[in-house]
Structure formats: C-alpha cells, structure tokens
C-alpha cells in the first residue's frame, strides 16, 4: 500500500498537508514534487494524489482520483472501557482502530484509577489517526468524551445489543451462556444491529454497576478462567464481534 496521509479537508482538486502530516511527508518520507501518495479524510474517502508543491511547513497535493474503498464494519460497534495506565492506552486505541471499532468511550466507573485529562480526546484521536494510516482505514474511530458509567448506561442506544465483560467465579455454566450469547450476537449482526461492549477497570465493576446494567438489558460475558487486563479484554471482544462477519 502506498504511503498514506491524513487530511480532513480535501477541497476540490487539492489537499494541503500541515503539521505532523506535512512533517511526515517532507522530513520523514523526504517526498519530492511528482511523488504519488494516498490521502484519506477520516470520513470514509480516499484520494490518489500527486505532490505538487513543498514548502518548509506544508505540502500541496493535486488530487488525481477519488476512490471509494469500503473498509468499515457493516454495523456500528462501540467499545466503552476505562483507560488503562501508560503505554497500554496506545495499545488499546491502536488495536481497536485496526479491528474496525466505530466508537470508543473512555469510561469512568467507581473503581477507575486513571482519570482522563482535559484534552484526552485529542490525544487519543492522534493515536487513532496513526493507526488508520497504517491499517488502511479511511474513517476514523470516533473517540467520545469520557463518560461516567451511570450516564453511559442512560445514553446508550436502546436498540443496541449490549454486552458487559465480567469475570464469574463458577465458570462453566456462565461460559456456556456467554458462548450462546455470542451466537445470538452473530445472528443479530446480520441484521446490522448496533453492538455495544463494556469492559471494567482494573478493580472490576462493582456489584451495583453490574446490576444497573443487567436491569437495562445488558448481557454478561465471561471470557474464561484467566483475568485479562482492561485492554486485553476490550481487544478480545472487539476481535470476537468485529471480525467474525468476515470469516
Ligand atoms: N478483579 C477484577 C474483577 O473481578 O472484575 C478484575 C478486573 S479485570 C483486570 C478488568 C476488566 O476486564 C473486568 O472488569 C472485565 O470487564 C474484563 N475482564 C477481564 N477478565 C475477564 C474475564 N475472564 N471474563 C470477563 N471479563 C473479564
């Protein structure tokens, strides 16, 4: 795949790369006038472009061809999870983007340790852009503002199939149940039902938080006898629900 650049405002026949995208083209790629690159706008469109003019700060590209390339899931997939610590945030956002997740919601639950900072959406979106450049995605995974568990439960799409990852002690029966729910989900996916997945913080959801979800029609999912980190659970679920329609 040709080198890809993000430009949210491709107007008519030109795209202008600025900031880190211009830096990537000019100083990392060392592109020259006449080189061909791919530009995507984050809203689903992709363009074959030719480098027309390079200055110290920006690069002007001429659009040669607008392409319609569909690389999105055929249904909406939301993942809500508290942010893990440090570098694991990058892993989480990168993998969810690659797996085609539509929207990520940073959750704040009772036991959430990492409190999202003020400009968390912009910081996480930068990771989404980098991952989209690499994986060929033309529509950005939306990063929502951080939301408390109670307001998230209130706001969630009532038509969605809703799954809460929650480890259970007694094992087999619940795991079987989880498997059946997976099958149910596969059926629903064919009808393009939106899917919402929630993962708890390192300390887990409280009993009250689980109960609040259950009373609103959420299904519990047990992912097996080992305790997964937040990002592992979120990525595993996104892979389970996001890739199964393609196989
Ligand atoms: N001690 C916590 C508990 O019992 O909930 C473990 C929390 S775990 C590190 C973080 C989150 O990942 C959990 O709240 C849950 O959403 C998800 N998770 C981890 N392992 C899981 C499993 N085996 N089954 C279902 N969910 C799991």
TrEMBL record:
It comes from the Bacteria. GO terms for molecular function: rRNA (uridine-N3-)-methyltransferase activity. Gene3D superfamilies: 3.40.1280.10. SUPFAM superfamilies: alpha/beta knot (SSF75217), PUA domain-like (SSF88697). It catalyses: uridine(1498) in 16S rRNA + S-adenosyl-L-methionine = N(3)-methyluridine(1498) in 16S rRNA + S-adenosyl-L-homocysteine + H(+). Keywords: Cytoplasm, Methyltransferase, rRNA processing, S-adenosyl-L-methionine, Transferase. Pfam families: Methyltrans_RNA (PF04452), PUA_4 (PF20260). GO terms for biological process: rRNA base methylation. GO terms for cellular component: cytoplasm. Its EC number is 2.1.1.193. The keyword Cell division does not apply. It is found in: Cytoplasm. Belongs to the RNA methyltransferase RsmE family. Specifically methylates the N3 position of the uracil ring of uridine 1498 (m3U1498) in 16S rRNA. Acts on the fully assembled 30S ribosomal subunit. This is Ribosomal RNA small subunit methyltransferase E. It comes from Thermogutta terrifontis. The lineage of its organism: Bacteria, Pseudomonadati, Planctomycetota, Planctomycetia, Pirellulales.
């Amino acid at each position: 795949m040709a080198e890809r650049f993000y430009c949210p405002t491709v107007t008519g026949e030109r795209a202008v790369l600025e900031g880190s995208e211009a830096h990537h083209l000019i100083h990392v790629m060392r592109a020259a006038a006449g080189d061909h690159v791919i530009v995507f706008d984050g809203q689903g469109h992709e363009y074959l472009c030719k480098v027309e003019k390079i200055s110290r700060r920006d690069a002007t590209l001429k659009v040669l061809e607008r392409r319609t390339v569909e690389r999105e899931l055929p249904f909406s997939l939301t993942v809500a999870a508290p942010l893990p610590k440090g570098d694991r945030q990058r892993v989480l956002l990168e993998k969810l983007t690659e797996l085609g997740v539509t929207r990520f919601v940073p959750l704040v639950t009772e036991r959430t340790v990492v409190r999202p900072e003020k400009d968390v959406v912009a910081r996480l979106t930068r990771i989404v852009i980098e991952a989209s450049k690499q994986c060929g995605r033309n529509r950005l995974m939306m990063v929502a503002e951080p939301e408390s568990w109670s307001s998230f439960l209130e706001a969630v799409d009532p038509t969605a199939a809703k799954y809460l990852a929650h480890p259970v002690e007694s094992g087999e029966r619940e795991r079987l149940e989880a498997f059946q729910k997976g099958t149910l989900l596969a059926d629903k996916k064919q009808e393009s039902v939106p899917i919402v997945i929630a993962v708890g913080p390192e300390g887990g959801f409280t009993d009250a938080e689980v109960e609040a979800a259950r009373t609103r029609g959420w299904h519990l999912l047990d992912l097996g006898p080992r305790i997964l980190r937040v990002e592992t659970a979120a990525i595993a679920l996104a892979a389970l629900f996001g890739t199964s329609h393609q196989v």
